[in-house]
Specification:
438 residues, alpha+beta, Beta-lactamase, Lipocalin, 2 domains, eight-stranded antiparallel beta barrel, 10 helices, 21 strands, Beta-lactam/transpept-like, hydrolase, EC 3.1.1.103, Beta-lactam-related, AmpC-like
């Protein structure tokens, strides 16, 4: 649910070759490396024509109790929940209970512009309603119970970011409101609606609205890597609703998206509405290009969980990935799958690093500012790990690759320090920005 880079498959660059013989040995080698170097914990499922052609689980669902992840381990799937919620809304439209162009003022009269904002505006993030997860105070209350009244008050107290339909901007608030609309029209909880309309008909035995995490129920906790895997705090599941509150696993997610595309949940007309991309967003669905091919699906992130499910209609290919610990850019895992599926070249990553002591890190500590961008970087340490935090963002750990050079592969960030000059150069996405220690 937290805001992540949602263009998960947009950076894939590779030549197409239409071989569909998945190189499972290459993927096995990749996952062995990822596990050996504490880069990833989670499960991958790849299927074609509804048949699983590769599956692998690595790491621990519960590090503290050394419970290994397996194919049935369940993960919080974050914003992939939005695709379920959008499907339920479109099903309600088909049943005549809602209309896409109807204003939401009937349900939320206290929200700015509620008599102009439509159901469709909520679905494709063109409402202008502020995303409550982007507020600086969000992480001060996200682990505490919030009632429906609490959430509506928080959302309605925000000023809108823009006029409805004038642009698009990702907002979790939109799908929390859609959840409340569903509960209002069906007079049932979101959990019951989800069960009745999707889970039971598709036999998704590992999919449900989440509660407090329980390893006894084969649910994974989430972690951040700080020299070792450290457990993340849990978002209270009274908050995310249909924006990010569903628990599932890659096996169920691949079944869901396959059944969605073959017409077993909603009509082709409704599916085409979901797939119609305006200003980067469909109706609860995203589009991911891979050269001349197009896939549809969604990404998700909440606490330390990250997930993605993507379907390529042309090849009937599904990739479903859920993780509870990522110390590596999951984009690269998806790239590996696509490269091996389409028989393109792919080199296994090199995870060589250098070991530093806590004393070695002293020369990098401090706050750095730049004349190029209005951002400050603060470097601290935790044990033998260098921790970096940019203005308004969560802190993240760095790994030393060579002397004075650190990386955060999950976001493609490199920091090159010059301790003598009290400088550091930030490199990301082809840009370079010089910072000086204050």
């Amino acid at each position: 649910m937290k805001k992540l880079i949602i263009t998960s498959l947009l950076l894939f660059i590779s030549a197409i070759c239409l071989s569909q013989n998945l190189n499972t040995k290459k993927l096995d080698s990749l996952f062995q490396l990822l596990e050996q170097h504490n880069k990833f914990m989670g499960t991958l499922v790849v299927s074609q024509d509804q048949k699983t052609i590769y599956s692998n689980s690595i790491g621990f669902a519960d590090v503290e109790n050394k419970i290994k992840a397996d194919s049935l381990t369940k993960y919080r799937i974050g914003s992939i929940s939005k695709m379920f919620t959008a499907t339920l809304i479109l099903n309600a439209v088909e049943e005549g209970k809602l209309e896409l162009d109807q204003p939401i003022g009937k349900y939320f009269p206290k929200i700015d512009n509620s008599h102009q904002i439509t159901i469709k505006n909520l679905l494709n993030h063109s409402s202008g309603i502020h995303d409550f997860t982007r507020n600086e105070d969000y992480f001060s209350w996200n682990t505490s119970f919030q009632s429906k009244e609490d959430m509506l008050k928080k959302i309605s107290n925000f000023k809108n970011d823009f006029e409805p339909s004038s642009k698009s901007q990702y907002s979790n608030s939109n799908f929390v409101l859609l959840t409340f609309i569903l509960e209002d029209i069906y007079k049932q909880s979101f959990q019951k609606i989800l069960n009745q309309k999707i889970v039971k008909p598709l036999h998704l035995n590992n999919t449900y609205y989440g509660k407090k995490i329980s390893s006894e129920n084969n649910e994974a906790y989430s972690y951040k890597f700080l020299g070792e895997w450290k457990k993340e705090k849990e978002t209270d599941m009274s908050i995310p609703k249909g924006a990010g509150g569903i628990v599932s696993n890659p096996k169920d997610l691949k079944t869901f998206i396959e059944q969605l595309f073959i017409g077993n949940i909603i009509s082709d007309k409704s599916l085409n509405l979901m797939k119609n991309i305006e200003n980067g967003y469909g109706l609860g669905m995203l589009q991911f290009p891979y050269n001349d091919k197009i896939s549809y699906g969604h990404t998700g992130g909440i606490d330390g969980f990250e997930s993605v499910v993507s379907y390529f209609p042309e090849d009937k290919l599904t990739i479903s990935l859920s993780s509870n610990g990522v110390n590596y850019n999951k984009n690269n895992i998806l790239l590996a799958v696509l490269a091996t599926f389409y028989n393109n070249s792919y080199d296994l990553p090199n995870f060589e690093t250098i070991e530093l002591t806590s004393e070695d890190l002293e020369k990098y500590l401090g706050t750095y500012s730049s004349d190029q961008i209005p951002l400050k970087i603060t470097c601290t340490k935790q044990g033998n790990t260098l921790i970096t935090q940019a203005t308004g963002q969560k802190a993240f750990p760095l790994e030393a690759t060579v002397e004075d050079i650190f990386t955060y592969e999950q976001a493609g960030i490199t920091l090159e320090f010059n301790p003598t000059e009290n400088e550091v150069t930030l490199k990301q996405g082809g840009g370079e920005f010089l910072f000086k220690k204050e």
